[in-house]
Amino acid sequence: MLRHLNVIGVVCLLFMGMIIILSCNDDTTNTSSIYLISGKHADDVELSTIEDLKNDLGKVVHADIRVVSEGETVPPNASVFILGTPDSNTLIGTMVNVGKLDLTKDNPGPRGGIWGKIDLENNVQAIVIGGSDTQGLQYAIYDYAKEILGVDALEYWTGKMPQPKTSQALFNFEPKMIAPPQIPILGYFENDVDELANYRGKLLEYDWESYTEMINSLVRLRYNAIQLFDMLGRPEFFIRPEYKKLSPDYAIRETYIDSLIDYAQSKGMMVQIDVSMGYKIKPLDQNKADCWKNHKQDWIDTWTYYFEETPFKKADIISLRPRNQVWDWEYKSTCGEDKIEVFNEVYQVLGDLIDHYNPNAKKVMVCYADGMEMFNQNLNPPKDWLVAWSDDGFSGFKHLPKSTKGYGFGTYMHAGFWLNHTVHDPYPKKMDTIMKNMVKNYQADKYCLVNGQQFRPFLLNIEAFSEISKDVKTFDGEQFYKDWTQRYFAPTVAEAAVKSMKKLHEAQLDRGGYVEHLWEIRETVSYLSNSPIRRPGKTPVPYDYTAVEEDYEHVENRLKLAKEALELAVEGEKSVQKEDTFYYDYIVLPIHLYHDLLNFEHTLHQMAQLKKTFEKTNDFKALDKALETLVLANDQLETIHRRSLEGDRNQKWKNWYNPEIRRPNNGFPSKLMLSDIKTNLALLKKQ
């Protein structure tokens, strides 16, 4: 922490050798200037972060803001920021050496930092923001931007802008130590991002702005790693018929991937690559992905190609799941292998390759349910592999370790899941309980990978994980809810937002979600139209009333809760100013979308019950009633499509929910489906 420094002490001790040259000119035109003093040994990440601070200051104060290196001239009466680490900034290093600043590599420690203030000669004021290392400086600067300047880490996505401030307000803080986060590696999994990739028009490829702004926000939230996945060319994109129809000429650009990696690393983020082998960049033949002993050399050759010929060579973290190496499903050997024996050998062989090509890379084994079962038996990779234990998609754990076996342990968590990737399931209170249990019982605080789906709908959960990573024990899910909503909304509106989001979470009971209901709708349509569900490349699913009947109760329960959530959200909107679109876009619209879909499914269920009555009794009145109800279903479907196409009120996100470019998981209801139902019901009447 910064100790008191008097003027004489500063002049004698700090400016010896002209570290900062103070101009002697009494130039009053410079009274509104701000100088950011970087260290002469600052690395590119430090300089990038300091440039971010310059931009942040420019949003809140009217001043001439300049970034200069130590040793350059600073005018009198300027506001000065001294920025860096003891190693990168000589001025900070000198303060540490003379005992005027408590900041070392070990205090507060890796990824930790400090804020302080000093008075210099000629009425020059200085703010010191330092870090034990580069990431510590980053977090100290970004925390200052958030807490003192009012800059929202998610500004690009929320539209929240900071309020103007006076130059004096920049100094309105007490000296502070920023402790290192408890979880040293907090990664973001770039997965299931179709909408984020597609909404601007170019399908299945990030535009540069969306990707870099996501990185910028994640870094401010203390995520220090990102796993690239979808944009490496996941196999669905060029194999599955739904995607071939969406983008028949799908291709990837390795130079673009290379640039994405460079950008993430330039912002201080580690890049993680899972070296499964289904990527377009060099896909392994599917028939070779489930027999290690016969195709071992093909696996090794593919990994070698990755490390020698592709941007994967730049990865800071290498991960692998003990699963099928093309498709994300359980490894089922086609040649009689014991899969545990297979992956004990796989992790040894791959580990040796990593040590050869990228000896500084961290290694992570990510265990899904089947991998957990294997680990609880005899799956034992070399001890330099960290083990990441996966949740159930909704921040709960169905499987727990019998023992950590002495491995470094972490978690793979979901801020959003593929079953609900359109509408978020807000659950910071659930995270609170679950993460505390995992850390207390299994010391799972060495690593956390967060799946945020397509990022924008899951901002609240994504930020909650960043707060948990700072100190798992002190995180309070209820307080986080309040703090997060009050950052964006007036207190009464924030209260309504919390109530509605809690109710939305309830409405997704039993791990429900928007995309899950799309499948249930297909099952109901299949029964009503007497036609199997046809899936490209897969066996058709026969129509089955029993499957539909199983959904009645939970749909009714979810619909009731979704209606309550919507009423709470709409009530809160009455106090929101028209120009504030974020409340509608983030709080109201998702609940509308979920409620619309549930309402439609509920109507189809009523029709299914009527059809079943006809099948049991041959009562044609039941079919007549079903056809009458079909009119309501048509109206509800029109509402679903209209609201999806209208989307957000902020036109920045126009086209986001467009059914034509959405992720094709479980399809999307269409007029043709209802037409097929009408045709079938009419035929039944004629029999």
UniProtKB/TrEMBL annotation:
Pfam families: Glyco_hydro_115. Gene3D superfamilies: Chitobiase/beta-hexosaminidase domain 2-like (3.30.379.10), Glycosyl hydrolase family 115 (3.20.20.520). The chain crosses the membrane at residues 5-23. InterPro entries: GH, GH115, GH115_sf, Hex-like_dom2. One of its GO terms (biological process) is carbohydrate metabolic process. The keyword Membrane applies. Keywords: Hydrolase, Membrane, Transmembrane, Transmembrane helix. PANTHER family: GYLCOSYL HYDROLASE 115 C-TERMINAL DOMAIN-CONTAINING PROTEIN, PTHR37842. The keyword Transmembrane applies. This is Alpha glucuronidase N-terminal domain-containing protein.
